[in-house]
Amino acid sequence: MTIEILEKNKCTGCYTCYNACPKNCIAMERDHEGFSYPIIDKKKCVECGLCEKACPILHKVVVKTNTTTPDIFAAWSLNDTIRLNSTSGGIFSEIALSFLEKGGYLCGARYGEKHHIEHCVVNTAEGLEKIRQSKYAQSDIGYVYRDIKKLLDNDQKVLFCGTPCECAGLRNYLRKDYENLTVVDFVCRGSNSPKVYEKFLEYLEEKYQSKITKVWFKNKTYGWNRFSTKVEFENGQSYLEDRYHDKYIVGYIRYNLYIRPSCAHCEYKTFPRVSDITLADFWGIKLDNPELDIEKGTSLVMINSLKGKNLYKNIERGIFSERKTFSDAFGGNACISTSPIMNPKRQYFFEHLDTMTFDALTKKCFKDKWTVRIKQRFIQIIPLKLKNWIKKAIKQ
Ligand SMILES: Cc1cc2nc3c(=O)[nH]c(=O)nc-3n(C[C@H](O)[C@H](O)[C@H](O)COP(=O)(O)OP(=O)(O)OC[C@H]3O[C@@H](n4cnc5c(N)ncnc54)[C@H](O)[C@@H]3O)c2cc1C
User: Fold this and answer.
1) Is the peptide bond before 272 cis (omega within 30 degrees of 0)?
2) Where do the H-state alpha helices sit in 40-109?
3) What is the distance in A from the centroid of ligand 1 to the CA of 133?
4) Lowest mean pLDDT: which of 250-264, 284-298, 374-388?
């Protein structure tokens, strides 16, 4: 027997089968789109079936003890350095710090060599800095589920953060509930192709004639609502474009051009969630106190389990937190429950990915329409600037 996910487009690339195989006979290989899929070396396979048992698509994970109506909060870290260096309100880092204080381990996505996005296990504040922030391509999980199991079996506390399908994969791999494991997922629009991300970086290196030293998605130079992509180069130059002009982000969030096929029918945008805590951006946030500055980043926090509730209580002293309702949360964030619709030009995009530059290809697939830009300026950016000016004027 070999792993049978009959339709390739259902495989989420969560690496669970790869971790579960006792003979290490599964390799994760990239297809022409740059997404990884399991390939079995049939000569080595002993047909134990563990890969199929672990697959979170063939065997859906439902955490029965998790609630279908989570407690919902708008929140952020009171530490401005953490908040400004995080994607949303920095709540992940606050949770992570509470683990580090107790000698626990963290597992999340970092930029590795050549800015390759990969999961790793860390247990220091420096390690936390590396896994902080959203990285907008699918993370290479490697064998971290095995590392996590070893730590859990040795009674170490572990905090895992990943996409909902990765969290489900980890739970299936472990095959039992560990009291010393906490799982945090996030509202996930979908996973971008690592190959497209590499092509984007390649295009920037060519344009700036220099090697990249740092990649930073959802940088807050222009504020949280108008998040930007910032890339720094060896020659001291930097690239900074907001969400309306950075082609990589536009291709992702406006056009769904290079998202993994399985994300189009995500099985884990459901309640109960597979995690103890779900994090997201609190888009559309309205606070009771208008004095509070949401522009440094605001997290949407969903507490799904008793473990999550106790953990959140533990960090409450270091954060601002205001209770919200389900409709407050859903109002501004369709991705909580809706999967992205794949772009009809997706096939054309991938057919030409090897022969065209990222810039040329995106120009073919979407137009930076002046009407859209003007609309954005008038409807989104100018009112935001006005609001900030008025706020500043009132303070003076
Ligand atoms: C691919 C992706 C899509 C997202 N889509 C949405 C969305 O549509 N709507 C929304 O409201 N929020 C979305 N988020 C979540 C949001 O961007 C923030 O990550 C979340 O709100 C937590 O923010 P924070 O400030 O608390 O922590 P952060 O410091 O931002 O922590 C992020 C955590 O996520 C992990 N992580 C980062 N990148 C990856 C990755 N590629 N794969 C797996 N784990 C990763 C990090 O290791 C870290 O543990 C998405 C995040 C990612 C990575």
Assistant:
1) yes
2) 50-54, 80-85, 91-101
3) 6
4) 374-388
CATH 3.40.50.700 fits 8-54, yes or no: no
Distance CA 164, CA 158 (A): 17
Q: Are strands 181-186 and 212-219 parallel, antiparallel or unpaired?
A: unpaired
Q: Which of 105, 116, 172 is nearest to 141 (CA)?
A: 116
Q: Is 131 in the pocket of ligand 1 (CB under 6 A)?
A: yes
Averaged confidence pLDDT in the chain: 93
Cβ atoms of 106 and 127 closer than 8 Å: yes
Which pLDDT tens digit goes with each residue over 198-218? 999 999 999 999 999 999 999
pLDDT computed for residue 1 by the predictor: 45
- The protein residue whose alpha carbon is closest to atom 27 in ligand 1 is 92
Atom of ligand 1 nearest to the CA of 94: 26
The answer for residues whose C-beta is within 8 angstroms of residue 34's C-beta and 6 or more apart is 193, 194, 195, 196, 198, 353
Q: Give the bridge partners for 203, in sequence order.
A: none
Residue 41 C-alpha to ligand 1 middle, in angstroms?
34
